[in-house]
Design a protein that fits this description.
By secondary structure, this protein is of the alpha/beta class. Helices cover 38% and strands 11% of the residues. It has 16 helices and 9 strands. The chain has helices at 3-14, 47-60, 78-87, 103-111, 126-133, 138-151, 170-180, 207-214, 217-220, 224-227, 237-242, 279-285, 287-293, 316-321, 330-340, 345-351, and strands spanning 19-23, 64-68, 91-96, 116-120, 156-161, 183-187, 252-255, 260-262, 272-273. A 9-stranded mixed sheet has the order 6-5-4-3-2-1-7-8-9, with helices on one face. Helix 4 (103-111) links the parallel strand 3 (91-96) and strand 4 (116-120). It is globular and about 55 Å long. Mean pLDDT is 88; it is low at 354-362.
C-alpha cells in the first residue's frame, strides 16, 4: 500500500476530511465554452470568513487543500489566504489559468512552498486555445505564466480538458509540456453546469476519438495493463456490500465561494453551509452527507452486477446530475465502452438497443 493509500485508509477509519477543494471565487477573466460555473458574484465569503474557515478545517484534520475558482487571482486577498493556509501547514495546490501570473507572483508562490500549480491549457495552437477561453491573447499569457512558475522552481501541471474543438490536439499539447519540463494531465469529461443544465455536455468528443484517448498508453502510465484488460466481471457480492463508490463525502469534500459544502465539486448536492454551521459539525452530522456515505456499490442500479463492476470509474456526482446518485453515470458507461468495446447493461438500456460488442479504434 502506498503512503497516499495508507493516509486515505486511515482518514476513512477515523472519519477525517483529509482533502478539501475550496473555490475562492466563480469570477473569471476567461469565459471557457465548457465551464460549468456561473461567473457572477452572488456574495463571496470575505477574507475574514475564509481565514476562519481555514482554522476550522485545520482543527478538523484537513491536510490537502486545493485552492481553485473561477480564477483565483481575481481575489486581491489571494496571497493573504495562501499564507495563512501554509502557516496552518496545509499541503496547498493551486488551480489557475495562469494569465495573471508574472515573475513576481511566481517567485512569491515559490517562497510559500506550494505543492503544485495546475494550469488549464487547451491546445498548442494559440487560436484554438483562445477560441475555447474566449479571451484573446490568453494562450500567450498562460504559457508565459507557466514559464515564470517553472523558472521559479514551482511544480507546474498542464490540465488539458478535451472536447470536440481540441480532441485532436492532445498529443501536441503533451509534447509541448514535455518540451517545457511540465507535467501533463488529460481530462476527457465535460461536466454539466452546477445548476443541472446539461447543454455543454454536447461538447464531448465523439466515441471514436474517446476510444483513441482511452487506448493511448502514453496517457495511462503504470495503469495501462489494468485499464486495458478485458472486463473482469461484476464486483463480488460481499465486496459490493462493503465497497464505497467514491471518496467524495468520505475523506474529501468541496466548499464553494459562498460557503456551501458539497461532497465534491462535480457532485452539487448541498450538505451544509459554513456560514450557518461549523465545518466539523457539517462533516460529522449532516443528514445529507450521511445519506451520501450510506451508498455502497451494491445499491447502484445496474452497476453492482455490471461486467465493468471491478474497473468502472463511475462518478456519483455525474450520476446525481443525470438524475440519481444511486444510479449509473452514463458518461462513465460510455468511457468503459470506449475502453473495452463491451457495453454495460445501463448503456444498452439508454440506447434502447443492443450495441455492437466491438468498437473499432481509429
Amino acid at each position: 500500500m502506498s503512503v497516499m493509500q495508507d493516509m486515505g485508509a486511515r482518514a476513512m477509519e477515523l472519519g477525517i476530511p483529509l482533502s478539501v477543494q475550496l473555490d475562492l471565487t466563480y469570477r473569471c477573466n476567461e469565459r471557457c465554452i465548457h465551464c460549468y460555473l456561473d461567473h457572477e458574484d452572488h456574495g463571496e465569503m470575505s477574507t475574514a470568513e475564509i481565514l476562519g474557515l481555514l482554522d476550522q478545517m485545520a482543527h478538523a484534520g484537513v491536510f490537502f487543500l486545493n485552492v481553485s475558482g473561477g480564477e483565483i487571482f481575481m481575489r486581491p486577498d489571494l496571497f493573504t489566504i495562501i499564507e495563512h493556509a501554509r502557516k496552518l501547514q496545509f499541503s496547498v495546490k493551486l488551480k489557475t489559468n495562469g494569465v495573471m501570473i508574472r515573475a513576481a507572483k511566481a517567485q512569491r508562490i515559490a517562497k510559500l512552498g506550494i505543492e503544485a500549480v495546475q494550469i488549464s491549457l487547451y491546445s498548442h495552437i494559440a487560436e484554438t486555445h483562445d477560441e475555447i477561453t474566449k479571451l484573446p491573447g490568453s494562450f500567450k499569457r498562460t504559457i508565459e505564466g507557466a514559464q515564470f512558475l517553472r523558472d521559479a522552481g514551482v511544480k507546474v501541471i498542464f490540465a488539458n480538458v478535451l472536447m470536440k474543438q481540441n480532441a485532436d490536439h492532445y498529443k501536441d499539447v503533451q509534447a509541448l509540456a514535455d518540451e517545457m519540463g511540465i507535467r501533463y494531465e488529460v481530462d476527457a469529461t465535460i461536466t454539466p453546469m452546477m445548476d443541472g443544465d446539461r447543454g455543454i455536455v454536447d461538447l464531448n468528443m465523439d466515441p471514436g476519438r474517446l476510444a483513441g484517448i482511452m487506448h493511448d498508453t502514453s496517457l495511462l502510465g503504470d495503469q495501462a495493463e489494468r485499464l486495458l484488460a478485458a472486463p473482469s466481471g461484476p464486483t463480488p457480492l460481499e465486496e459490493a456490500y462493503e465497497t464505497l463508490p467514491c471518496s467524495a463525502g468520505h475523506t474529501a469534500c468541496y466548499i464553494s465561494p459562498y460557503g456551501d459544502v458539497f461532497p465534491c465539486v462535480q457532485f452539487p448536492y448541498k450538505v451544509g453551509s459554513v456560514r450557518e454551521q461549523a465545518f466539523i459539525d457539517i462533516w460529522r452530522d449532516s443528514p445529507q452527507l450521511n445519506d451520501v456515505r450510506s451508498i455502497r456499490v451494491s445499491d447502484l442500479h445496474g452497476c453492482s452486477s455490471c461486467v465493468h463492476g471491478s474497473s468502472c470509474t463511475r462518478c456519483p456526482g455525474l450520476a446525481y446530475l443525470e438524475g440519481n446518485m444511486r444510479g449509473p453515470s452514463i458518461q462513465d458507461c460510455e468511457k468503459s465502452f470506449a475502453r473495452t468495446g463491451v457495453p454495460s447493461w445501463n448503456l444498452q438500456q439508454k440506447q434502447g438497443r443492443k450495441i455492437p460488442l466491438q468498437l473499432i479504434v481509429a
